[in-house]
Amino acid sequence: MPALEIAVTSPAGARVALDQGADRVELCTGLELGGLTPSAALVEAVAAVGLPVQVLVRCRPGDFVYDAEEIALMAAEVRSVIASGASGVVVGALAADGALDTEAVTRLATAAQHAGRPVEVTLHRAVDVSVDPVATAALLPALGLTRVLSSGGAAAAGQGLERLAAMVEAAPGVQVMAGGGVRPSDIPALTAAGVAAVHLSAKRRAETRRRAPWVPLGASSSAADQDTHFVTDPSVVAEARRMLETRTAVRPSR
Question: Signal sequence: where (predicted)?
């Protein structure tokens, strides 16, 4: 059965994922920014919940074209989060022309593999903005990566079925994990495309606890955007688990 991975930002989210039957979590901060590297203390707290923790290593929001200083920083972050209890890391980098930056990815994977214990390495959704997601996936077996997280280059994974299926064929030995706008109702079609796992944020907006007025803290964000955060919704995780267990044999159109 394909695995269920839930993106979380806290120990509370990891506990929800565990209680509702997820197989592992991906941990990050700044989920609304596409995810950023969490602190060592947060990694330790989430690892203590008991599920395997894949930690996103991304030093800033924005594009995936990094300079040498940023790559060095992320290599150090890889070592830090693994030392803090991560079961794996989620990394990626692109060249300016949209090709996979194999030198940078190799450096990040090597940092993970020097942990002295088995560590999984996932290529994140940089693959979806690469010039050719299928060709990019085909490079991963030679780089020693464990899996790739992808929407098939589409706005949402449910719209990228054909490309996800092509990635499965192009990268034998690498787990293709469908992620990006995944809803539980998408899961039968995604699993029929041959993916090894599905990835959901399963998030909802938390209720605000404040009573006082709110002043925006950033020039580009409204008070409504800032005066909240996201939490893991147990009902969405439970429904995703149910859909995986009762999925029907839906085939993607070709």
Answer: none
